[in-house]
Structure formats: structure tokens, C-alpha cells
């Protein structure tokens, strides 16, 4: 598109900057009603051009403030990807040269018996 309509903002950009904020806080920050903000996020109404710009600038100011205080942004929490939680319990730590126990045996290897706590 050679000449995009500059009156409206990108709804994906607004959704990106709105992540982690409640609808009430976002409406108060933008000085609009919760209904307007909900309509913009759902795609029912077009987003005015100034909304993503304002959110982007406030995000940049926040990053600058944190950088001036020598505080970095918190990293998102990471988790195990691709393994369902039920399979995680079957994973065993690698101990020395013993990579795994015999799958037919329920007894742990000799190295693991010495290092594991005993519950009795």
C-alpha cells in the first residue's frame, strides 16, 4: 500500500503494548472509557493513530528510567517446552558416567543410591 491511512493505528501494536495491563488501568492511562479500550482490543472499532504511539513512548520512557537507575527489565519466566508435565517426572539427572538406569529395573543405579536421600 503506497499511501496508508495514517488516521488509524496498528491494532497489533496496541495489543503488544497493552499486554500485562488491566483494562481499567489502560483506560485510565489513555483517558478513555473501558468500553472504548475493549472495542479497540477486540477489533470492533478502529484504533486511533495516537494510542499505539502514546503506549510506545511511555514504554520507552519506562525503559529509560530503569536504565538510569541501573535496573534491567525482568526476563520472562521460562519453562520446559515440548514436554507435558507428566513426562517431566521420568527425567533423571546425569550422574558421572552412568547416563541412565536400566529401564526394566526399578532400582536406581549404585551411584544414585549413595547420593539420594533416604526416606524411611
Write the layout of secondary structure elements.
Layout: H1 11-18, H2 23-30, H3 34-42, H4 50-68, H5 85-88, H6 110-115
Helix pairs in contact: 1-4, 2-3
Quick synopsis:
This protein is mostly helical and 120 residues long. The chain has helices spanning 11-18, 23-30, 34-42, 50-68, 85-88, 110-115. Residues 78-120 are annotated as: Disordered.
Give structural notes.
By secondary structure, this protein is mainly alpha-helical. The chain has a domain at 11-68. The chain is 45% helix and 0% strand. It is built from 6 helices and no strands. It has helices at residues 11-18, 23-30, 34-42, 50-68, 85-88, 110-115. The longest helix is centred in the middle third of the chain and has 19 residues, at 50-68. The mean pLDDT is 76. This is Helix-turn-helix domain-containing protein. Residues 78-120 are annotated as: Disordered. It comes from Paraburkholderia solitsugae.
Amino acid at each position: 500500500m503506497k499511501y496508508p491511512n495514517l488516521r488509524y493505528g496498528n491494532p497489533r501494536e496496541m495489543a503488544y503494548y497493552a499486554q500485562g495491563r488491566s483494562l481499567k488501568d489502560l483506560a485510565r492511562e489513555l483517558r478513555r472509557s473501558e468500553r472504548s479500550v475493549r472495542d479497540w482490543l477486540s477489533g470492533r472499532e478502529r484504533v486511533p493513530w495516537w494510542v499505539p504511539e502514546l503506549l510506545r513512548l511511555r514504554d520507552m520512557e519506562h525503559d529509560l528510567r530503569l536504565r538510569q537507575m541501573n535496573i534491567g527489565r525482568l526476563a520472562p519466566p521460562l519453562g520446559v517446552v515440548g514436554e507435558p508435565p507428566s513426562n517431566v517426572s521420568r527425567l533423571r539427572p546425569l550422574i558421572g558416567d552412568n547416563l541412565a538406569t536400566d529401564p526394566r529395573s526399578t532400582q536406581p543405579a549404585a551411584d544414585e543410591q549413595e547420593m539420594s536421600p533416604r526416606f524411611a
